[in-house]
Amino acid sequence: MVFFIRLKTGFFETKFCTMSVKDKTVRLFSEDLYNEKETIIRDSDILSVAIINRQKRPIELEIHASEKIYTGHCIDTKFKDEISNAFLTEFGSKVHME
Question: Rounded to whole angstroms, how far apart are CA atoms 86 and 16?
Answer without folding.
Answer: 20
